[in-house]
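Changelog-adjacent note: as of this version, every example in the card shows the full chain rather than a window. The one below runs 475 residues end to end.
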Amino acid sequence: MNKATPRTAKLAKSSSKPTSTAADKQGFSYTRSHFESLVDAALKHAKKLGATDAGAEASEGCGLSVSVRKGELENVERNRDKSLGVTVYVGQRRGNASTSDFSQQAIEQTVQAAYDIARFTAEDPFASLPDEADIAQPSEQRTDLDLFKPWDINAAQAAEIARQTEAAALCVDARITNSEGASVSAQQSHFFSAHTHGFRGGYASSRHSVSVSPIAGSGDDMQRDYWYSSHRYPEDLAAPEDIGRYAAQRALSRLNARKIPTTQCPVLFESPLAAGLLGALVQALSGGALYRKSSFLLNSLGKPVLPKFIDVLEDPFVLRGKGSSPFDDEGVRVKARQVIEAGRVQGYFLSSYSARKLGMPTTGNAGGSHNLILHSRQTKATDTLEEMLQKLGTGLLVTELMGQGVNYVTGDYSRGASGFWVEKGRIVYPVHEITIAGNMKDMLKGITAVGADTYNYGAKTVGSILINRMKVAGS
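Full-length structure tokens:
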């Protein structure tokens, strides 16, 4: 298995960063000022109807997606959508409605619908807008996060990049016999939101990607793998040739896979999969799971859930970060913080609602976590995947997981897997048709090392993770 992931970006030339005014003209049908007028009209009508409080958000998204397979164009899709969402409070009752019609009549009908829902909904003592003291005022909202860069690309150009990516995979080795295709996506959106507790804000964002999925082998021994690159700025994307070659190498490395006997052994999660372990930790520390008592980490504030050498940082202000934002989905201010310090929980992930349910202050996480970075105080720059295999010794390197398999109430973990059997720090053969199992509490505390081979998966950045022992069900 080739462990060098593609990093080089050579897809597009950079241009000057667009201003917010310029962003209004970057392929969008509506300007921010238009959105402001729509939102203000909705809030005004809500107050006219007698709403205690109200919030509204106008948004628009557009993009291009192109896919090819075996060099032939398969799909060209252009998407454009728009929405106005309205939330109305009548005392402690809440109602929501939305429309894609921006006419004044439609806005009033949507507000009326939300108001009527609120009037006939049961009271919820925790239902209200965020406290005014928590609101991110315009002067506090970061505008320098570089979240928006349109990709000036047409369908023909996107198809050519997809062909280059797939061709690079197909020419790596004669054993790459087929392909599930390659795709290119360029997406962008913007919104404006406001509510009657003083919040006003919005911004434009973009997300672009290139991916390919080659198939290696023939007959009864066929293996598929994939690779992709996804970034906010097109020039940050890996080169098509690098993506294709790496995807092909991954598929080839899985040929001649075999089953292994049921055993217990150390398990090394490849960094893209390690991000899933971090995601499970976030889910267990999220307000909704905590107030519903459906988390295996109930009442864990201040308690150790990871080894002492591990910290988890949340930073909403990473430039071009996929989880960056100047405020959360409710307009609450956000900040960088240590979620886990020396293995101990320093804070949960709370919206205003879940915070009230738990009798705690909001953490600015309505809509989810921001950029999370899992850091080991023991990790050295030399702790590549090869070095992590040495630390693994004899055991299992997992490179693919199947199914959900996590019970967040009990922490029980069981998932189908494939990867490689490792002996004395060296990969000896690929394995498949196995299941790995354990309990998330034990798995998190059983982390013995974190690699320097960091990988960004969505809003999470983490290296490969070595867990001291798990059950492996095989033949």
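Structural remarks: The first strand starts at residue 53 and ends at 69.
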